[in-house]
């Protein structure tokens, strides 16, 4: 009799347990569906919205300006050079405006913000895309001087902050969006030089800005592209800068690294070519979502390498990061020659 009762209880419990599991699974599927659906909800009219993009001479900024112009936005594209501006105008509609801007020149930034204010009027600025950036010198830390660190930090960090502070009143007016283009180099120190510290700092600025702007209904998003084939990452320019620095190095450092170090680094780089994304559109798709979704994300990883390798690695223990990243580096000839 007792056995029968226990058996029935067991059947009952497994039955209710199965039911429970079914409901939990159903709830999870529903949550997943609603989450995906939420990400697809878009803002209404874009044809009356203004967006300002920096670094439009080439790369992500150039593709973004052309893409958002085609979509119907009023694009104001900031270029560093006259030639970049002329080429972009030739490929876009009458609606698109260009402006020459050096983000490291505070007066230039201030004048540009005033000009943008006159362009957008009462509508304000729906989108600010801080995309302008330079790599600076990418080389081992003990090869560099303080001046080598200055240029990327001036452009990538102080330039971005300067543009943001000057444009912020216009974005607040529109209850719009700020999109900061950082890098996987803002999550992992992949290479020596000023680029990585500048991007780490952009991440910090982005996060404090996001929290400060929440009360104003302004969304702030950060895009973290992996390795993409742009002028920024032109291997020829990177090697030229490295060679120029090598010539200036002390005999001690040259002895430690060895004459063939740059060549060996180049061979390692060639082995990693599969990492490099040739198509720039994933970055612009992230910008698009951050601009037009009713629920933009706070962070976007752009590129397969960023999603599968760099961003997951950034969450791993330092020992594992060091092991995997040091495998990418060329061996030194004689590190004991100090």
TrEMBL record:
InterPro entries in alphabetical order: NAD(P)-bd_dom_sf, SDR_fam
Keywords for the protein's UniProt record, in alphabetical order: Membrane, Oxidoreductase, Transmembrane, Transmembrane helix
Keyword Membrane: yes
Entry's transmembrane regions: 20-36
BP terms from Gene Ontology: 9-cis-retinoic acid biosynthetic process; androgen metabolic process; progesterone metabolic process
Any Pfam family the entry gives: adh_short
GO MF annotation: an example: androsterone dehydrogenase [NAD(P)+] activity
Record-level GO cellular component terms: endoplasmic reticulum membrane
Membrane recorded as keyword: yes
CDD domains according to UniProt: type2_17beta_HSD-like_SDR_c
Family, similarity comment: Belongs to the short-chain dehydrogenases/reductases (SDR) family.
Name recorded for this polypeptide: Dehydrogenase/reductase 9
Phylogenetic lineage: Eukaryota, Metazoa, Chordata, Craniata, Vertebrata
């Amino acid at each position: 009799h007792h056995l029968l009762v226990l058996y029935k209880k067991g059947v009952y419990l497994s039955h209710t347990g199965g039911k429970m599991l079914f409901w939990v699974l159903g709830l999870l599927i529903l949550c997943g569906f609603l989450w995906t659906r939420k990400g697809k909800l878009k803002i209404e009219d874009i044809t009356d919205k203004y967006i300002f993009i920096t670094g439009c001479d080439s790369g992500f900024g150039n593709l973004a300006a052309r893409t958002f112009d085609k979509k119907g936005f009023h694009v104001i594209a900031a270029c560093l050079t006259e030639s970049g501006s002329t080429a972009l105008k030739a490929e876009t509609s009458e609606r698109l405006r260009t402006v020459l801007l050096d983000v490291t020149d505070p007066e230039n930034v201030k004048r540009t913000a005033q000009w943008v204010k006159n362009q957008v009027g009462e509508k304000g600025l729906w989108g600010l895309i801080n995309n302008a950036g330079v790599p600076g010198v990418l080389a081992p830390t003990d090869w560099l001087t303080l001046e080598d660190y200055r240029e990327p930090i001036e452009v990538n960090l102080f330039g971005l902050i300067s543009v943001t502070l000057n444009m912020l009143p216009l974005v607040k007016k529109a209850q719009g969006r700020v999109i900061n283009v950082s890098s996987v180099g803002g999550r992992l120190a992949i290479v020596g030089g000023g680029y990585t510290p500048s991007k780490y700092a952009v991440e910090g600025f982005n996060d404090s800005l996001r929290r400060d702007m929440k009360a104003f209904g302004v969304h702030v998003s950060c895009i973290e592209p992996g390795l993409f084939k742009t002028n920024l990452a032109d291997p020829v320019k990177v090697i030229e800068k490295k060679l120029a620095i090598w010539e200036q190095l002390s005999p001690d450092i040259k002895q430690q690294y060895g004459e063939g170090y740059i060549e060996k680094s180049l061979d390692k780089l060639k082995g990693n070519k599969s990492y490099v994304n040739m198509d720039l559109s994933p970055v612009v798709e992230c910008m698009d979502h951050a601009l037009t979704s009713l629920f933009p994300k706070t962070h976007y990883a752009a590129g397969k390498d960023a999603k599968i390798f760099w961003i997951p690695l950034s969450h791993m223990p330092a020992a594992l990061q060091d092991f995997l990243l040091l495998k990418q580096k060329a061996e030194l000839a004689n590190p004991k020659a100090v």
